[in-house]
Amino acid sequence: MTRTSPYPYALLLRGINVGGHRKVPMAELRALLTELGHGGVRTYLQSGNAVFTSAERDEDALASGIGRAIEQHFGFTVDCIVRGGPYLRGVMDDCPFPAAELEGRQLHVTYLSEPIAPARLAPVDAAAFLPEEFRLGERVLYLYAPDGLGRSKLAEALARPSLFKGIVATTRNWNTVAKLAELTAETPDA
């Protein structure tokens, strides 16, 4: 484990505070992250987004440690993905869709715990869902859904568990993607 000066991260929790289930109050999450020794802790929305700094450089180790702490504190498991600020900005820079011309609800990013090969998504007939589209990036899947995620047939097809078996995947709309990149750029050192 390499320890150096604090580095900005975003924490993405999957499937919390939805329909009154698996409640993780953001004030408690902030307190828990602070107790774990992370600095500059802030949360964004109620859907499981936090930013913090840490001297730890291993994203997977951070995600595992936070996941264990959440399970111990709240009594249930939550899939966690941790990504560094520069990576989040890279996700924005590498977007294959014209993000500046779209509404935030039309563009989504699914963060993946590990890279996947394009062949894994071959069962999805992309042409059948046009004008909706998806593209793979570095540990992300970009989804263009002009009528929003709630009405997206492509999002429904991509949500099949067999496509991402063994991989943690959690989706954020473009507004949240941009805000997390901004917050990690602003996160003060611990």
TrEMBL record:
<protein>
    <submittedName>
        <fullName>DUF1697 domain-containing protein</fullName>
    </submittedName>
</protein>
<dbReference type="InterPro" id="IPR012545">
    <property type="entry name" value="DUF1697"/>
</dbReference>
<dbReference type="Pfam" id="PF08002">
    <property type="entry name" value="DUF1697"/>
</dbReference>
